[in-house]
């Protein structure tokens, strides 16, 4: 029996392709069918479409005196230098002749010597402008290219809308050969970026890092000295700066946001897990230390420094990658300098100084920790435990970016357990101190908050600061509850759909909101949960056509095209179009918008 | 509880049969999905075009022949490389009822200059700038060279983006031209 079954199975597997062939409906010419079956002879199979083969973007130079056009030509494809054409319309700007870099020479038996471009090509288009303020223009591009595998694309025409920045008096700096002036403007950029970093101190870009770093410092226990606390925090900040620098370089090179690629379930989940492990060691459940042999060897080598500096550096780099991917308008502004300049060095350096600015508070905390934190004893254990709780909070905050995680239930659990630890459900002893009463009180507050969070979590809510909206309790506001984001926003998959929608909106004399969203974007989720659920916002948006572009997959060429078309750096972004279909650039906003701010914006549109 | 060997193999057989059957079903379903149902205008709409001398060639002219219609342009290097192959095919198969028709998405002067240089022995028509729309209507919007093979009944039976290999196009012509 065993053998026969085995044979039968083998026979079945062998026969499978034959069965397929026979089962294929035999219609038309047998040659064609055979070819179709084998997947050859279908024309579109192996060539990229023209926009993937020749990705193009145009970026106004920061000085307003030029446009930089960047072609990213796929491998195995090329563009003809002589077929490049650029014209500009709208506004007062006029193009002087394009500065085409030399191409690779190719002998053509018919046309003679031809120059072609491979890979990345940057073309500078110097502008003559009569108007010095910001203005909107449309750049027309024409180009033509081929695949080395043997096809040529018909001549391609594209339009890109741009907003030219105001003309600066010092706009000639980037082209100016004088090094002194260039370093001067470099220095200004660096200082501005450092200042921007300082501004970010009390935003979600930095705040979650405070418990992370503090836990590391507290975890040093008896080895903690004043110098060591400071040194550790500097190393941590340098770690974050490394990540931001790489992000800046990548932005300068490709115009992409590096961090988008790390906002996925694995990276966030992994880092959250690491924080949970660190937190548990804060509770003294175990000692998170390297094996003593390794530890003593490292200590021997870097005497007086300890072996954990590289770990702390790495932790810093990792935290910046995932925690720091906050799209705050400030971060966008700094990153856009790098993207607009298309300069990896400038991009890296600005992001580096911004990271230092962001890290200043961390270094201050690190140094003061040496003064403030006791080295041992029960008090020390309390401090460690509270940092452990904060670390768990950071882990939950990170997980909140993943829609599948019931984040309020986790918050509820954390709050309730913390409350219990604080003695919320224990009777106070007869001879109680004021401290004991206070801690029990805090414990009870956390316990109740946790219970509310659990209830809200089971009702599908996600906001820990508003776990149980009143409407939910009263059941009074069904309209708000019933409108979810799919209904409020029409999803726009590609540029063609968007153009149709824009046209239809202006025909109906309706203003239009274009919202860029991504699952990995924490501020987007916050807006979905708060701003776009608010009754006044929904009411205000009634007269609008509300569209949404989902940038969750950073590699999707269709949504990338929309992003590029409008020069949007990343989500969340709100673009407002008036009823004539014109984008109101001055209303464009990046980052989180509260109900008030959002209402104020849409009230400006007729 | 452990099933007897016989029972276990019988179960295995049943599962395998279902799996294979399901697989075939899925595959068939998938292949109907991925086989695009394309329809093109009849080839007779294609060819009321002028040649380099300004002579109009009505499409009816090549009725009953196997037609190899090649869209090309002088600005397309692979297209130009393919032309000698078409010239050779035409001279070898003309007697048996093959006609090659070149349609240049290009200007008359460039085509004339190229024709003088290389020697195009088959009908060479000019579609000019409007040729791109024509090309797209026959499923070739993506690029050049793009070729259609039309059987004696006037049906488009093959289309090809990119250059033909000589053996490939010869086998195709052989299969459609018949004893002629």
Q: Would you kindly provide a written description of the structure presented here, covering whatever features stand out?
A:
- The complex is a heterodimer of chains A (606) and B (180).
- The longest helix of chain A has 29 residues, at 226-254.
- Chain A is globular and about 100 Å long.
- Chain A is 50% helix and 15% strand.
- In chain A, β1 (54-60) and β2 form a beta hairpin.
- Chain A starts with a helix and ends with a helix.
- Chain A has a five-stranded antiparallel sheet with strand order 6-7-3-10-11, with no helix packed on it.
- Chain A has 606 residues and is of the alpha+beta class.
- Helices cover 43% and strands 18% of the residues of chain B.
- Chain B is built from five helices and seven strands.
- In chain B, β1 (49-51) and β2 (56-57) form a beta hairpin.
- The model of chain B has no long low-confidence stretch (mean pLDDT 80).
- The chains are: A alpha+beta (606), B alpha/beta (180).
- The A-B interface holds A 1-2, 5, 8-9, 12-13, 16, 19-20, 23-24, 29, 31-32, 36-37, 41, 43-44, 47, 49-50, 80, 83, 108-110, 144, 146-147, 149-154 and B 5-6, 9, 12-13, 16-17, 20, 23-24, 27-28, 31, 35, 73-80, 105, 114, 117, 132, 135, 139-146, 151, 157-163, 172, 175-176.
